[in-house]
Amino acid sequence: MQARFLALAALVAVSACKGGDGDAAATPVQETKLVVTGSSTVAPLFSEIAKRYEQKNPGMRIDVQTGGSGRGIADAQQGLAAIGMSSRALKPEETAGGLVGTPIAKDGIGIILHKDNPVKALDREKIVAIYSGTVRNWKEIGGKDAPITVVNKAEGRATLELFLVYTKLKATDIMASVVIGDNQQGIKTVAGNPDAIGYVSIGSAEYDAANGVPVKLVTIDGIEASTKTVTDGTFPLARELYLVTKGAPSGSAAALVEFARSPEVSDLVKAQFFVPSPRPVAEGGGPGAKPLETMTPTGS
Amino acid sequence: MPETVATTDIAGSFPSRNLSRVWLADRVFAVAVWGSAILVTGVFLWILGDLVRHGLSGLTWEFLTTAPKNAGRAGGIAPILVSTGLILAVCLAVSVPIGVGAAILLAEFSSDASVFGRIVRRSLDVLAGVPSIVFGLFGNALFCKYLGLGFSILSGGLTLACMVLPILIRATEEGFRSVPRDYRSSAAALGMSRTSTLFHLLLPAAVPGLTVGLVLGVGRAVAETAALIFTSGYVDRMPSSLMDSGRALSIHIFDLSMNVSGGDRNAYASALTLVILLLAVNGVAAWMADRWLHRRITSPT
Amino acid sequence: MADRILVWVLRSLAAVAGAVVVLIAVFLVAESVPVLREVGLLRFFTDASWHPASGLYNLTPMLWGTLFAMGGAVLIATPLGILSAVFSRWYAPAPVRVVYRRLVELLAGIPSVVYGFWGLVVLVPLIGKLHPPGPSLLAGIVVLAIMILPTIALMADAALANVPESYVRGAASLGLSRWGTLRGVVFPAAKSGLFTGVILETGRAIGETMAILMVAGNVVRTPDSLFAPIRTLTANIALEMAYATGSHRSALFVSGLVLMAMIVALAIGADLLAGKAKVHAHA
Fold first, then answer.
1. Do residues A224 and A121 share a domain?
2. Which pTM value belongs to this model?
3. Is A65 near chain B, with CB under 8 Å?
4. Touching partners of B (3+ C-beta pairs < 8 Å)
5. What pairs with residue A229 in β-bridges?
């Protein structure tokens, strides 16, 4: 049995070497490989963009890896990745280090409740009261008599930081009943609990609500939460998804970044439930490049 | 089975107080045993039933043979199946020789009191408890960065080998321990060298233990997510060599269920595929053990 | 001569296995040093709370979370697993035996995400109906127990299989009942294998990351009831590592180090127990 496994190992090793040589010998086109790492929020979108780019540019190979916005930014800084994906704007110390962020999509953050919850609209005050623990029961704000299950995002996430800016709370002020990591975990937690409240990406929530998941987006401060209001900029809670490069994008990375911002991939952006972000590249990619009212965390 | 007939008959035909208490203990125990089996089966059917209900519709031939489209919501999982298979192959190719070797050493060549043996054994116990995410970060630092393998199937397989080693070694070691001392004394009396005793006599006899180790190890390897995200990576392209990054099935399931909206159905279908593949692998393991020994590992001996 | 070479080859293979642990420990220490130098180890147990962004690093609530989740899971899974193995070996009719064994083997290979997902969409709402919010220590214990059950069940099965048939026949000829045979003869004989199974399952319970992250609530608070949400050290690393930089990242590695210290303590305890057991039983 040992012999068989050793034989298998040898076979695999040989085929691995052959694979490498075969590639170099058979492909006449020079293969350029770009490594892109970062946010798992951006990864599915950028994976699709990369695939389409590869189809149009044979010889290009783009490897997309996850690991979080922090890793993406760090890898871009250290040159371990050609491009970093980030779901938050760059902090001042990061732009000072020479990093440039190019926005490729916009994502709104909406408050979700269970479908059966009679409450349909909230305003900033109520949200702050619920999340800071001042209001603990739905009946205090016109709902049924049930304790509120507060769903909060884990520290460090861009969504949380945006929420903190909007509510003017500190991370230590929030009294959470459940802490979640990814959007889907948030949606599924609220879907499974009729008395829960949480905040997630608007696009995902819209899609899921339309496809039978028992959650709904509530109006905030009178503004409906939908990809439409995010697109026209009226919705207050929105953030951009960035491609981060060391210095302005250059070489093969530049073409890829351009492609990612072009109308050619708007359908891909929409398919991932984000909103295309058709704005010119600005050095620094931080608040300076913003028009009007979208809120971005200014670096905590 | 001899014991079934003997005990209950004897216990039932003597009406004295002591024996009826024994009879009661037997009954209570039997209830506990059957109860556990029913509970475990029930839980399994519950979970599997969920998978089947939501995922069966997505399990088509096309699903198994095409590449993912639209972030995995459409298309199939062919490249992912290949990547998973390769990662598993690397993991086993590395961990089985090291594991069996270490197990042999621990069981045969080190006395119970040997310091080296104790240290290795306890190190393995510690290794068994290291969180999968620490393995992922460690694997990333050692294989991807320090050894320069980058995000690759090789890195993933090597990291998984580290994770699987303790299970493999301990289970195999138990297998060796179970071989009666008589075998070894008889072999010595016949003048066989230890090496020869090992390969011709003990290894075959310890195969059931090794098989359990393999089944548990493969199960653990295939079920791993956190360790692979940082080592074999996220790329869902068909890999052309071991140095390519390849997405494992468990990561695909994670991405579809937790990261991508609308990916649930394919997540379930992928999970169902995994379960079926496991059935196949475990079945093959049992068959191989059976063939090797000419007896089934499920026999009462 | 061949024997000597063999021993040295085997020694080096075993050493490789042992070396991995050392490497991991070194790695964890190296990554933890930055924040330890800045803040010292004591604050990891005495700060007001866990909010690394604001410089607060108390790990104790999460340590309790890990201990309770692991303890609860092992308490439930061990008897169920051993009884499962007994069922498969002695109580199950022949055709059922094979099917049941396949079933348990399958449970061992289901990814943690699947268990977590099932826990999130099926178990948590159920518990929530009983006592909000749902994601809780109880959910964590149940999911963990299901996940580690196959380990103890399969190891116990192998251990029971290795008990010489002569022992069982001897017990039957002495007129021992089935329970008596198991309790007095089989279990003691299978002790070593059962013990290994418990160690492996405990290790798995401590090291589980994904599934517990999805169902246990992840609130950093020492649990005061089964229905309270908890965060384990592993879930903490998984949750925050992706977005942590600098001291925060380093602090997460410290929690990994604390986890390893806990496992080492358990392993040493196991070693002492095993030493005592060997004195009593000389198979």
1. yes
2. 0.84
3. yes
4. A, C
5. none
